[in-house]
Amino acid sequence: MNRFDFLLFLALFFFLSPCSQAQYTTNNTPNSFFGDRGEVYFRFSGTSASEINRLSHIISVDKISDQNVFAYANKKEFENFLKEDIPFTILTAPGLLIPEKELQHRIPVVKSGNMIIWDFYPTYQEYVAYMVGFAASHPDICKLDTIGTSIQDRLLLAVKISDHVNQHEAEPGLFFTSSIHGDETTGYVLMLHLIDYLISNYGIDARITDMINSTEIFINPLANPDGTYYGGDQSPYGATRNNINNIDLNRNFPDPKFGLHPDGENWQKETQAFMNYPDLNHFTMSANLHGGSEVFNYPWDTWMKLTADDTWWQWVGREWADTSQKYGPTGYFTDMNNGITNGYSWYEINGGRQDYMNYWQHCREVTVEISDIKLLPVNLLETMWISNYHSFLDFIEQSHNGITGTVTDSITGNPLCAKIFLNGHDMDSSEMFSKLPSGFYSRPVSEGIYSITFSAPGYFPKTVDQVEVHNNQAISLNVSLKQNPFSINDKEIQSLRIFPNPGNGVFEIELPAND
Ligand SMILES: [Zn+2]
After folding, report:
1. What b/e sequence results for 96-122 when a residue is b if at least 16 CB atoms lie within 10 Å of its CB, and e otherwise?
2. pLDDT at 96
């Protein structure tokens, strides 16, 4: 640490350390709380649930615990919060709690095989090198993908892990993404570990081999690199929640209730990249990893009403929480309802990625808070891995359960992009779609007997009744649809004539001539 940095550290210490925690009111000018950072972390209490939901439109609520609300704000948000005249306490930013020296990279220890012990935070350059290296060392099952770039031109990277990795196969797509909040870094290292674990065990461990052969697994360890490396590329010391524009990316997505820009901000470069990526890769399920709590937070975040698949979410969430509790330290992953919660019933979030993915991408995405401490000391990273990797593997396998199959043209056998709608069940965009080029679909759902309608433009819809589903099992249902020669498009509807009109029970339909 040079002299300038040391002085800065001292200044931040006195501004932000818990020792300086005092109740402030609007008499303080906002700038004094920020130091050289664009965001501030604070706490307040004694507010009702409806009040917190109202305030969540002004500031970025982080969590609610024991009547305390923890929140972040950029300068504009904080000025608005001060107008509320609510007493608050400034807290040390989670990214500044651990001394920089303890977060700096050290030489990794190689375990048996080629795997390393993931008990360190790589520098940004090492992170990129690891991602390149994973793909280079296992080109048959691991491919490097660039989701996009951040505002500061850091790479938003993912690897795809699957057999026939360069093809789009008839397999469920599973997406893991971490650290959209740049100072929630546990998942960042755990995702690097997961990639290493999967590719190192291919052909060795039967469960992992099966998983890779039958699933398209996409893993993005770091969704907000500018936030994580706000303090410099050498370590996550000084990491921020927000991106470099001081925007909370997990409030910046289109929202089912509040429309395209619920936070009143333009879509950030990172947001746009993560909106495009699922357009290119069909994901059945997704987990977005966070820190600050230990809980499986399932949709909706924005609506009080429950999803069509609430029972399924509780089932999958219970499995995740029970497994993490089993392998974790005593008391681990027990927040809210013993480790799971409906998002809205915890607190309302608008513009979160989870609801965007569920509503617009028809992907079952969950927000998983995996460690109470956001920027975890390096000596706890291995414990978090042991506590969680069984849950990661279970979650991958859940993408196979429910109803799966292909939808094809009855004559040509060509695969179709069809809507799969569970009658009397689906609502609020919970229907799913088969993907091209394979025509494959996977529809996770809790046990029950379903009536399913398959439909595609230009085809007669087909309904299959009495489809019986059991938890943790897959039922295969391949469907072929018959072309409808009389299918019409909007332009044709305008010139379509039905006569006589009014009719006498017998109608003649005149289709427009082809031109
Ligand atoms: Zn978060």
Report:
1. bbbebeebeeeeeeeeeeeebebbbbb
2. 94
To 5 degrees, how large is the angle CA 67–CA 73–CA 76? 135
Task: Tell me which of 496 and 313 has the higher pLDDT.
Answer: 313
Could you report the per-residue pLDDT of 157-194, keeping only the tens digit for each? 999 999 999 999 999 999 999 999 999 999 999 999 99
Candidate list 77, 270, 369, 431, residue with the active-site label: 369
Q: For helices 381-398 and 186-201, give the axis angle rounded to 10 degrees.
A: 60
Q: Which residues pair with 183 in a beta bridge?
A: none
Which pairs from 127-136 meet CB under 8 Å and 24+ separation? 127/192, 127/221, 127/222, 127/225, 128/155, 128/157, 130/192, 131/157, 131/159, 131/195, 131/221, 134/159, 134/195, 134/196, 134/199, 135/159
pLDDT score, position 1: 36
Mean pLDDT along residues 47-66: 89
Report the pLDDT averaged over residues 300-329.
98
How does pLDDT run across 389-399, given as a tens digit for each residue?
999 999 999 99
What is the whole-number distance in angstroms between the Cα of residue 184 and the centre of ligand 1?
A: 6
Q: Residue 109 C-alpha to ligand 1 middle, in angstroms?
A: 30
Instruction: Measure 367 CA to ligand 1 centroid, in angstroms.
Output: 8
**Cβ pair 444, 432 in contact under 8 A:** no
* Ligand 1 center–CA 361 separation, angstroms: 21
Question: Which domains are delineated in the chain?
Answer: 3-91 (no CATH), 103-398 (3.40.630.10), 401-515 (2.60.40.1120)
Distance CA 453, CA 464 (A): 6
Question: How many H helices and E strands in the chain?
Answer: 16, 23
Q: Say if CB 369 and CB 292 are below 8 A apart.
A: yes
Residue 16 has pLDDT above 80, yes or no: no
Average per-residue pLDDT for the chain: 90
| Cα 54 to averaged position of ligand 1 atoms, centre (Å) | 19
Q: How confident is the model at residue 335 (pLDDT cuts 50, 70, 90)?
A: very high
DSSP string, 373-412: SSS--GGGHHHHHHHHHHHHHHHHHHTTSEEEEEEEETTT
State residue 21's pLDDT score.
39
Q: How far is the CA of 150 from the centre of ligand 1 (A)?
A: 18
369 catalytic per annotation: yes
Token couple for 229: 């490396």
Ligand 1 centroid – CA 369 distance (Å): 7
